[in-house]
C-alpha cells in the first residue's frame, strides 16, 4: 500500500470538470510502450513492486497468466495486462531483475494482480466524459474489457469487473 499512498500524496490530481458526483479517482498505468490505461481506484486494493523471480509459474495456463505470488499470506494470481489486452508481453520487454508493478484488484470477493511496467498517477476524471469503445478504435479481443476511453486524458478506461469475470479465469480455476 506504500506505493499507492505515495502516489496519492505526490499526485497532481486533475479535475476535468463535471459535477462532484460524476467524478471518480482512477489509477493510470502504462500499456505497451506508449498507451495508458485507467483503472477505477475503488477496485484497487494495493500496488506492489514485484520482480519476475518472485513469481511462481503455473503450468498449463494461458500465456498472459504469469503465475502466482504471495500477497498478505494468500496466493495472488498475476496477469500480464499488456498481453491480456493484446499489447506486446512484459516478459519480452523486461529483464528478470527489473521490478514491475502489480495492481492488486479486488472484485466480487476475488483478488487478482494486474502486472504492468509502470504505475503513473492517480487522477480524477468525469465519468460522463468517457466515450464508448468501438471496434473501429480497439481490437475485438480488447473491447469486452473496456468501459471506453477518455480523449482528454489520452487513455483507455479499463473495466475491472469484466476483466475479473473473463471466461479464461473460470476455465482455469479448477
TrEMBL record:
UniProt-listed SUPFAM superfamilies: CheW-like
Top-rank lineage group of the source organism: Bacteria
Domain CheW-like: 23-169
GO biological process: chemotaxis; signal transduction
GO cellular component, one term: cytosol
Cited PROSITE patterns: CHEW
Protein name stated in the entry: Chemotaxis protein CheW
Organism: Scytonema millei VB511283
Amino acid at each position: 500500500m506504500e506505493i499507492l499512498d505515495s502516489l496519492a500524496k505526490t499526485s497532481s490530481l486533475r479535475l476535468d470538470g463535471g459535477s462532484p458526483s460524476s467524478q471518480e479517482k482512477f489509477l493510470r498505468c502504462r500499456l505497451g510502450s506508449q498507451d495508458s490505461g485507467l483503472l477505477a481506484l475503488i477496485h484497487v486494493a494495493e500496488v506492489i513492486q514485484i520482480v519476475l523471480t518472485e513469481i511462481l509459474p503455473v503450468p498449463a495456463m494461458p500465456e498472459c497468466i504469469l503465475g502466482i505470488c504471495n500477497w498478505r499470506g494468500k496466493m495472488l494470481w498475476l496477469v500480464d495486462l499488456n498481453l491480456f489486452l493484446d499489447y506486446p508481453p512484459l516478459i519480452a520487454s523486461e529483464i528478470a531483475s527489473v521490478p514491475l508493478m502489480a495492481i492488486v484488484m479486488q472484485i466480487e470477493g476475488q483478488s487478482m494482480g494486474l502486472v504492468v511496467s509502470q504505475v503513473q498517477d492517480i487522477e480524477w476524471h468525469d465519468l460522463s466524459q468517457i466515450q464508448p469503445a468501438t471496434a473501429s478504435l480497439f481490437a475485438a479481443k480488447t473491447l469486452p474489457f473496456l468501459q471506453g476511453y477518455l480523449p482528454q486524458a489520452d487513455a483507455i478506461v479499463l473495466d475491472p469487473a469484466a476483466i475479473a469475470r473473463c471466461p479464461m479465469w473460470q476455465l482455469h480455476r479448477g
